[in-house]
Amino acid sequence: MQAYANPQRFGRLARTLTPWTFAAAIALALTGLYLGLFVAPPDYQQGEAQRIMYVHVPAAWMSMFVYASMAMASAAAFIWKHPLADVAAKASAPIGAVFTALALITGMLWGQPMWGTWWVWDARLTSVLILFFLYLGYIVLWSAIEEPTRAARAARILALVGAINIPIIKFSVDWWNTLHQTASVLRTDGPAMPAAMLTPLLIMALAYTVLYIALLLVRMRIEVAQRRLRTIRLGLEALPA
Amino acid sequence: MMTFRALLWHDVLLGLRSSGGAALSAAFFALIVILTPLGLGPESAALRSVAPGLFWIAALLATLLGLERVIQPDVEDGTLDLLRLSPLPMELVALAKIGAHWITSGLIISLLAPILAPMLSLSTSAIPMLALSLLIGTIGLSAIGTAAAALGASVQRGGIVLAILVLPLNIPFLIFGASAVAGAQAGTATGQPLMFLTACSLLALVVGPIAAAAALRLNED
Q1: Shortest CA gap A42–chain B (Å)
Q2: Which domain holds residue B174?
Q3: Which element (helix H / strand E) includes B9?
Q4: What's the pTM?
Q5: Is ipTM over 0.90?
């Protein structure tokens, strides 16, 4: 990892990897969508509408996965002072927020025909919504502090405090939900998912993950370039006219 | 220890005497409570059912209000640099800040809430629990809020940024606090939510000073 602390070496690697990761993400998504939409059987209870699962569930997984990677990158920045760890955390946040929004929106689209309502205050929905706001707070903190190194250090702390808090929030929301309403809208666990459904789901999850890596590489390169640009500009301003 | 006490006392006095301090957050808290019947209608049954949650939402918002003056002025006038030179560890500086913020917001709100309770027709049996849960929970709110204030100290006019950072993290307090009061009102068991609330506050009291101290150190350069 230390070898890629050099932004230029990282940039070269990222540039080589970017087209391949995008291609892999597209190929995986096309395979997963084909298997999910045409090959997999419709759900015996929910019919064809259940197929939205293949875009919804991986998005929900990614919303948590990206936050976890963000927190780990922040911890790495704290411990090893790896110069690209902050960049990775910053670049992850908007991607994670979009995955979270996607999970919420597809969830609403799925909820409307299945539960007859766009939104229920179910524990999982509520937690994902709160997660979205945690992402927003992180992004806002980055944009509020102008100087990148200082913003990076503040954002690290926020990401870690958020990571400590997420299990507590999750627990409190679960507790609140069982107190206020019983799980009347959620289906009880049906039969285990058949392989014909599980395979496309896992392929889609892989597609989302590879897409995350591809977007992350691009965004990290942009961030590194922007920082260099900022340094150059500040250097030019400092020059006597 | 003397430095700690002096710092705490200094911040409490500032909070009580400055215009944006304790009086403001108490007034804001009272205003939210008073606005509720105007928005929801004066039927006491309806007010009674929303009162536990409403008091807690008001507490979350009112404790938010004083956060901008916890760290920011010290950064601006250089007090923070002197605090850094003092032998007091940054964690204890943060703890003093948390204590001062709690005394000038949470404590006052907890004392004010029982007086306002009849206005929302909260049943008399729930009033002690309202005061107790606010007393315990606002400590945690101050701890998390101070950590966020330290993070946002270098942000100009960071008030709204603070709100977005703090409010999602405070959700557990809202849930457990409101549940304890609602339980007391309904006559059901309140031990569980109250203990969870206490646990959240204690944890925040550990994480808050550490995170705040780390955030205060980052402005060092």
Answers
A1: 38
A2: 2-217
A3: helix B2-17
A4: 0.86
A5: no
* Helix count and strand count (H, E) for chain A: 6, 0
- The tokens describing A44, both together, are 């015996």
Nearest to B49 by CA among B181, B189, B197, B196: B181
Residues 6+ apart with CB under 8 A from A40: A51, A54, A196, A197, A199, A200
Return residues 137-196 of A near B (CB < 8 Å). Answer: 137, 140-141, 144-145, 150, 153-154, 157-158, 160-162, 164-165, 168-169, 171-173, 175-176, 179
**What residues in B contact A172, CB-CB < 8 Å?**
171-172, 175-176, 196, 200
Nearest CA in chain B to A168: B172
Phi, then psi, of A47 in degrees rounded to 5: 70, -150
Of the candidates A154, A160, A165, the beta carbon closest to that of B218 is on A154
Q: Are B4 and B100 in contact (CB under 8 A)?
A: no
Q: Which residue has the tokens 């006052």?
A: B108
Instruction: Give the tokens for residue A43.
Output: 């759900």
Residues of A in contact with B169 (CB under 8 A): 134, 161-162, 165, 169
Q: What is the pLDDT along chain B (221 residues), one digit of tens a residue?
A: 788 888 888 888 888 887 667 888 899 999 999 998 899 888 888 888 899 999 999 999 999 888 888 888 888 888 888 888 888 888 999 999 999 999 999 999 999 999 999 988 888 888 999 999 999 999 999 999 999 998 888 676 677 888 888 999 999 999 999 999 998 888 887 888 999 999 999 999 999 999 999 888 876 65
Strand partners, A43: A47
Facing residue for B165 by CB, picked from A141, A164, A175: A141
Q: How many domains does chain B fold into?
A: 1
- Asked if B155 lies within 8 A of A144 by C-beta distance, the reply is yes
Residue with tokens 């507590």: A168
Q: What is the DSSP string of B89-130?
A: -HHHHHHHHHHHHIIIIIHHHHHHHHHHGGGGT--GGGHHHH
Neighbours of B156 (CB within 10 A): 10
B161 reaches A (C-beta below 8 A): yes
